[in-house]
């Protein structure tokens, strides 16, 4: 499933933040999004995941193919690790959660309540959710926040495994994950202020 | 969908999940009313259906602000919105879970608490029937209010203001069924109105809730 984005413009709170974005993400490829804080990487990922409508442009191939992981992990503190993961597995119609637990070393924590996990452990659980979605395109927003070096390596392995199976990933991150993916710096696509036209001039 | 219902019920019954909040409030209201209006049994019999219905309605209102807000805060609402479930079914399941944890206990507790208010004997049956028919509407309307105010800090006040007027028809016809039943009058007309309101809200409001939720998630 190729994700094609043509001439995309996105808004945050009604204000255009990025415009003129074009890329194609093919199966087996990763695309790393970079850019300074506040440039609109999160907004771009949310738009591509279908959580908000684009201002202009066409997104092709994102319908029901995207697994989105945002800043928060969507965990319930009073459910155990296994219960949290099993819930998402059944929402996405997957049966097997063991491989996801293995991939992020969560077996020892399986029966702990998610509320008692450390920040990094919570993140690992949040990322393991991606493995049970069965969706081909992963959209990850700062996935390595609060992960230690070991866990970052686990994450990179999981992404590599996903790419190896013909999946693709769009990752907004500031660190080098050692993935061979293209880098898209969104800085140059910052939306420019509209020039004042006659309509605006009427108010001045 | 079953998984979501199971998760919501599990969450409600776990520590801090808020199960029993509405029930405890209902209990407090009905226990305190005889103290505040005085112990004349004829007066209590007269007001019992109305007090029980009002208590149940306010008890339902109490837990509404947590209905979607918790899922919004921890990000699971975003994830549910990108999941294969349509948002319409998500809000329907949420309303169903709210009814099972709040409305259903009220229906079951109402006859017991009716004794405290000296509810006339023929009224017990009609009280339970009217609550069983009316409380689903309260949950569905409440879910709509919760969807409207999700993402607002301290949205509880706005939620109550938005939802209370929408609760009025259910309250009028529900309490009327119980009152007529208690005094041995014909109950068919208000009962049909109550059933109609519930059926209409269940049929239509999930679409409205899902639509406002999509806007609020942006």
From TrEMBL, chain A:
Name the record gives this protein: Cytochrome C biogenesis protein CcmA
Organism of origin: Ruegeria marisrubri
ATP-binding keyword on record: yes
An example molecular function term from Gene Ontology annotations: ATP binding
Keywords: ATP-binding, Cytochrome c-type biogenesis, Membrane, Nucleotide-binding, Translocase, Transport
Domain spans labelled ABC transporter: 3-204
GO BP term (any one): cytochrome complex assembly
Highest rank taxon of the organism: Bacteria
Record PANTHER family: ABC TRANSPORTER I FAMILY MEMBER 1
Range of residues in the leader sequence: none
InterPro entries the record matches: AAA+_ATPase, ABC_transporter-like_ATP-bd, ABC_transporter-like_CS, ABC_transptr_haem_export_CcmA, P-loop_NTPase
Automatic annotation (TrEMBL), chain B:
Subcellular location: Cell inner membrane
Membrane-spanning parts: 12-37, 43-64, 96-117, 123-150, 157-178, 190-213
Molecular function per GO: heme transmembrane transporter activity
GO cellular component: plasma membrane
Membrane-topology descriptor: Multi-pass membrane protein
Pfam families, per database record: CcmB
Record keywords: Cell inner membrane, Cell membrane, Cytochrome c-type biogenesis, Membrane, Transmembrane, Transmembrane helix, Transport
Protein family membership: Belongs to the CcmB/CycW/HelB family.
Function: Required for the export of heme to the periplasm for the biogenesis of c-type cytochromes.
Protein name (record): Heme exporter protein B
Taxonomic lineage from the root: Bacteria, Pseudomonadati, Pseudomonadota, Alphaproteobacteria, Rhodobacterales
